[in-house]
Amino acid sequence: MKGALSWPYLRLYLLTLLYFSANSILNVIIPLKGEALGASNTTIGVIMGAYLLTTMVFRPWAGGFIQRYGPIRVLRILLTVHAFALLLYTFTGLEGYFLARVLQGICTAFFSMALQLGIIDTLPDEDRSQGISMYSLCSYLPGIFGPLLAIGMWQTGEISVFVISMISIAILTGAVGFTARIEQKPGEEASGNEGAKPGAAMMRAMGQLMSNSHLLRCGVLMLSASVVFGAVTAFVPLYVSEIKGGSAAVYLTIQATVVVAARFLLKSRLPSDGQWRASLVGGMMLLLISASLAVGLSASAGAALFYAGAFMLGIAQALLYPTLTTYLSFVLPKAERGVLIGLFIATADLGVSLGGIVMGPIADLTSYSFMYGLCAVIGAAAAAFAVRGSKMINSK
Length: 396
Description:
15 helices, Growth Hormone, Chain: A
């Protein structure tokens, strides 16, 4: 096999799958344990949101450092820290969980940027969207089996099963990661970065967030969509008790399965030419709106609508991120592409964090149904922005 499916890249995808396996389990265990300990939705949302909020802060810095020094140099250090974070979950309470989420967030900022920039910089243009889609696919693949494993661990009540799982994932991830290779093209690593400091590059990138219409448009879309993704991840395990016949494990498994299937089956059909596709992006956002409404109404309508929401949200989640990331990889200035893409991905991290941190208090003050209805309103505003944004691009 060649291109995005050659052995060196398959090894990177395997590393991605192992790295994100722990989080797919923790996304279910943390809310359940928090509720069992009497924590409010606000507290649970803060702990859940701390992970990607930290990732958001460090993501632009990670992009600059990795583009300057190369992805492999930082990979082994971050995998060691990540292993320590996983160990914290095995012997601490909610306070230790918060610290572990912060450490995970820092590691994920560098990990995801290292692999994505490595894929972008080393694959031919025509294979770029396929490589990014495969990376995204493997980052979500654990979402199929992770929730089921988490529910099983929780129902058994045996803490030793959870401890062994975290330790095993840490060891396997380190074994694969320490032997991974990302070959830079000759002269690629230093291109556009000679004499540049990551901090200075990030400050310039922050200015471009408002001045670069492509980055601003994609960032707002990703931020809005990610609020919905975050609210679903953080609170579906708790909301499901209000849905007759509903199961959090089934919901999350359906959503993850759809994400994986869509990214695998459509990986070669996603645009990889730097052209803006208004109808495609608008369609994804409409699916997002429909999914939010379906989840919000399922408390009264039943489990069938609940699972339909998982299906629709999975499609939107599968296509939106790789589409926008690939588009930006073509239209952003190459010299600062690493930092700028890091800034874009940080908007996704921020959105998922806000989905837990902000939507948690809203759910406490109102209801889960109201909160998911508000998510639909956010999605509608983002869809309108996408349509308006496409007209702005075409007029230039």
